[in-house]
Amino acid sequence: GTKAPETPSAYLGLHYRRDLLSPAILAPLARLLKVFFNRGVALVTVTLIVVAHILAYREMGFPPNLDMEAISWPLLYPVILNSILFHELGHLAACHRWNCPHGPLGFGLYFFNPVFYVDVTAAWRLTRQQRAIVDVGGIYIQLLFAPLALALYWMTNDPTYLMIIAVIDLVLIGNLEPFMKLDGYWLLS
């Protein structure tokens, strides 16, 4: 079998990690998503994400004012989990955009917080702009859940879909924090 990766001892590294999906399994999914990293598609997609956010926050207010008793928690949690998996696939899709190899997707503990990760170490061979796009690629793909959630809210009038947008936004803002080894840290490096 495959040798389990060693746990890094670095202060800001993962304290536990376990690979879940191999690069071979992830590659077809990443190739499908790489279309979102073509300039024209990205421009249209970012515009759609921005408009969806404006319309969603007009519905729920800022800060969000939602009836928490009306939220379907059994719906919210799996959607958020899937959005996080798509976040990781976004990094890989950006790698595929520039034919950059990537490693597996895994699960780990980072300062006692459960996290998913992908190994995109090979992205260091890319240009600065390409590396930056790999770094924010996860955020970009995860934000695709906003227009979808807004459309589902309009079809069902279920405020859970607005809550999905708010929770993803909070997660992504935290992910941009530059002092821990999250997307914001790697973007600045």
What does this structure look like?
The chain is mostly helical and 189 residues long. It has helices at 23-33, 39-60, 73-97, 128-142, 145-156, 160-175, 183-188, and strands at residues 16-21, 105-110, 113-118. A three-stranded antiparallel beta sheet has the order 1-2-3. Helix 1 packs across helix 3 (73-97), helix 3 (73-97) runs antiparallel to helix 4 and helix 3 (73-97) packs across helix 6 (160-175). It is globular. It starts with 15 loop residues before the first strand and ends with a helix.
Which stretches are poorly predicted, pLDDT < 50 over at least 5 residues? Answer: 2-12
Fraction of residues in β-strands: 5-15%
Strand order of the largest sheet: 1-2-3
Mean pLDDT: 89
| Count of strand segments | 3
Oligomeric nature of the chains: single chain
Secondary-structure class: mainly alpha
Query: Total helix count?
Result: 7
Largest sheet: 3 strands, antiparallel
Query: In percent, how helical is the residue content?
Result: 55-70%
Query: What's the alpha carbon Rg, rounded to whole Å?
Result: 17 Å
Dominant shape: globular
Q: Give the CA-CA distance, first to last residue.
A: 35 Å
Q: Could you spell the SSE succession in H and E letters?
A: EHHHEEHHHH
Provide a compact summary of the structure:
This protein has seven helices and three strands. The protein is mainly α and 189 residues long. The longest helix has 25 residues, at 73-97.
Keywords:
57% helix; mainly alpha; 189 residues; three-stranded antiparallel sheet
List the helices and strands and how they pair.
Elements: E1 16-21, H1 23-33, H2 39-60, H3 73-97, E2 105-110, E3 113-118, H4 128-142, H5 145-156, H6 160-175, H7 183-188
Antiparallel strand pairs: 1-2, 2-3
Helix pairs in contact: 1-3, 3-4, 3-6, 5-6
